[in-house]
User: Which sequence fits this backbone?
């Protein structure tokens, strides 16, 4: 079974631009979560989606948004990019949000560099 | 809120040495506990997990036991290899409605031949 895939793997943007990252979960997985990884802050939770609905959101500004499609694929968008948004963005999928279904499997990440 | 405290790194060991990476947690209810590993330039790989007290997770020679009385989930391996060099993250998901992973700060392990 194919793992979680993320595209693109690398992105370079300039301040003020916007960016969209894509995630395809493992087949059969219906929950998708996003995390930001930086050297200073470590791994921080961004959002969780299940059945096209955002169930939880982390402590990030409104410039960070996301969505999930009917095939469970997910996208996240960052508008008005800032230098501090440079990070590895990781997507993870799980079967669902219930006990016994919530083990998360990660993709390779998208490395975003903001200049 | 939930939190995970991991042993500070970096940790440097010789091949075939014994490894322990300490992890303690604070959480409401009965969390599930995980160890993930990250190799350079890659995402996180699930190494092992435990979902209830006294469960032992194991994989690839690594083990960790869910100790509720000490709120710990220490990672151990009896004989490390150079290929085990990576960053190791302890994490939890609490038993509430939010299914977000809370991570420790990570421990860099380097194994020398």
Assistant:
């Amino acid at each position: 079974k194919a793992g979680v895939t993320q595209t693109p793997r690398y992105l370079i943007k300039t301040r003020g631009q916007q960016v969209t990252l894509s995630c395809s979960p493992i087949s059969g997985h219906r929950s998708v979560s996003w995390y930001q990884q930086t050297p200073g802050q470590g791994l921080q939770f961004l959002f969780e989606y299940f059945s096209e609905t955002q169930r939880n959101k982390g402590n990030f500004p409104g410039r960070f948004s996301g969505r999930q499609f009917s095939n469970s694929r997910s996208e996240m968008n960052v508008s008005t990019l800032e230098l501090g948004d440079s990070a590895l963005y990781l997507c993870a999928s799980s079967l669902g949000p219930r006990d016994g279904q919530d083990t998360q499997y990660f993709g390779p990440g998208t490395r975003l560099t903001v200049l | 809120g939930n939190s995970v405290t991991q042993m500070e790194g970096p940790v440097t060991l010789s091949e075939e040495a014994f490894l322990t990476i300490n992890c303690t947690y604070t959480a409401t209810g009965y969390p599930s506990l995980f160890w993930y590993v990250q190799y350079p330039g890659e995402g996180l790989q699930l190494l092992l997990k435990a979902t209830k007290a006294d469960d032992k997770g194991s994989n690839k020679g690594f083990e960790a036991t869910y100790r509720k009385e000490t709120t710990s989930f220490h990672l151990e391996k009896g004989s490390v290899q150079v290929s085990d060099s990576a960053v190791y993250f302890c994490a939890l998901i609490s038993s509430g409605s939010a299914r977000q992973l809370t991570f420790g700060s990570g421990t860099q392990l380097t194994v020398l031949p």
The first strand of chain A starts at residue 5 and ends at 7. The interface with chain B takes residues 4, 6, 31, 33, 35, 42-43, 45, 48, 55-56, 58, 90, 92, 94, 97, 99-100, 102-109 of chain A (CB under 8 Å). The CA atoms of residues 83 and 91 of chain A lie 21 Å apart. Chain A is about 0% helix and 50% strand.
